[in-house]
Each structure stands twice: as structure tokens, then as C-alpha cells.
TrEMBL record:
Record key words, sorted: Hydrolase, Ligase
One Pfam match: Abhydrolase_11
KANL3/Tex30 alpha/beta hydrolase-like domain span: 34-173
A GO MF term: hydrolase activity
PANTHER family with a match to the protein in the record: TESTIS DEVELOPMENT PROTEIN PRTD, TESTIS-EXPRESSED PROTEIN 30
Record protein name field: Alpha/beta hydrolase
Length: 217
């Protein structure tokens, strides 16, 4: 198996870091998606739910890119209140990944946790994503439901999966025709209690859309 490919991608906000993992197997009958995963504010791509999702998606035939965004490489805890610079940097990174050999034809799935879920939703239409996975989507700041970010989620324009903890202080979005919501009992915002179960929900949802392989019974 090929070792992970590590790269730096220059953006208008400084370099971002990418680690690309090739699939552990090819998936007959599936389209073998490119899954681009990113972190939340103050976090990293080593979050348990992200790592578990990476590993299980590769087992099902996906190529996975783990992206440390430019603001985190620069040592900042958050991307700032203006979403424009973060979105610009993020789209630069994803487009560069798509330009790498063998990845341009793979269906694109954007995924992130918390703030990373927000940027994935905001950029999905522009980047031509087939689907979005939003882990711990922060519907509103804790204790401030009037500051809803629901419009960001609905604007993704493609099928989306939301996985939130039942006790998440950032709130839980409602499902709709294009939004599947999995609520994890006993979990809070970090989704760290049973990350493999979180990942199973993600890859099963992707498999239903032909983006990774189904588990053979």
C-alpha cells in the first residue's frame, strides 16, 4: 500500500497542510469518492471522529484527504469572524487536491467537524461537491439560539449528513428532504465517546449513495 502523501498548498492566507491517503481497497460497483476532511476551530485532523471516518472510508474504497487549514498551520485558534478569507483559502486547497493525478474524476465529498462542517457547506456548490458530511454542525453559539447558522447548512445544495451529539450545546439541526440527521445519544460536541460508531453512520450513508462500497453480508 502506498504511504500517505504529505503536501503544503499555498493560499492567500498562508500554507495549508494536506495528507492524502489512498484507499485500502477498490470498491466494485461504487464510484470510489474523494473525501476531503477538515477540523474545527482550535482542533486538528487528529480528532477521534475524523480519524475513525478516515480509516473506515478508506476500508470502503475512498481516497481521503485530511486538510489542516491555513489558519491552524499559522497557529491561530479560529479563522476569524469574516467567513470570506477562510472560504477562499479552503476552495484553493480543495481545487489543488482535485488537480492531483487520478483525483479529478472522483466524486467529491466535503466533510468537516464543527467550524469545518460550516466551511464545507458554504463551499459545496462552488466546488461541485456530490455530498457534504457535517460532524457536530454548530447550529448556534451555546446559549444563543437566535444566532442560527441553519442557512449555511441548507445552502449546501447537495445531499448532506449531519451527525450531532444529543447533548451538544451548539444545538442540533432539523432534517429535511436533503438533510439526514443522526443524533448520537450520550455524545456532546466532540463526538468522542464512540468514534467508530460515528464513522459507521457516515460510511453507510455514503454507501447508500454509491460513493463507497457496501459491507458484504
Amino acid at each position: 500500500m502506498d504511504p500517505p502523501l504529505e503536501a503544503r498548498i499555498e493560499t492567500a492566507r498562508g500554507p495549508a497542510a494536506v495528507t492524502l491517503y489512498r484507499p485500502e481497497t477498490t470498491a466494485p460497483g461504487a464510484r470510489n469518492c474523494l473525501l476531503v476532511l477538515t477540523h474545527g476551530s482550535a482542533g486538528g485532523v487528529d480528532a477521534p471522529d475524523l480519524v475513525a471516518t478516515r480509516d473506515m472510508a478508506r476500508e470502503r474504497g475512498a481516497t481521503v484527504a485530511m486538510v489542516t487549514q491555513a489558519y491552524r498551520v499559522a497557529g491561530r485558534r479560529s479563522p476569524g469572524g469574516n467567513t470570506g478569507p477562510q472560504d477562499e483559502s479552503w476552495t484553493t486547497v480543495v481545487r489543488q487536491i482535485r488537480a492531483w493525478p487520478g483525483l479529478g474524476e472522483s466524486p467529491l465529498v466535503l466533510a468537516g467537524r464543527s467550524n469545518g462542517a460550516r466551511v464545507a457547506c458554504r463551499s459545496a456548490v462552488e466546488l461541485g461537491a456530490h455530498a457534504v458530511v457535517a460532524l457536530a454542525f454548530p447550529l448556534h453559539p451555546p446559549g444563543k439560539p437566535h444566532r442560527s447558522r441553519d442557512a449555511e447548512l441548507r445552502a449546501a445544495g447537495v445531499p448532506r449528513l449531519v451527525v450531532n451529539g444529543a447533548s451538544d450545546p451548539f444545538g442540533i439541526p432539523e432534517p429535511d428532504e436533503e438533510t439526514t440527521v443522526i443524533v448520537r445519544r450520550g455524545e456532546r460536541h466532540d463526538l468522542a465517546r464512540a468514534p467508530r460508531e460515528v464513522a459507521t453512520g457516515v460510511v453507510d450513508w455514503l454507501a447508500e449513495r454509491g460513493l463507497v462500497a457496501h459491507v458484504e453480508s
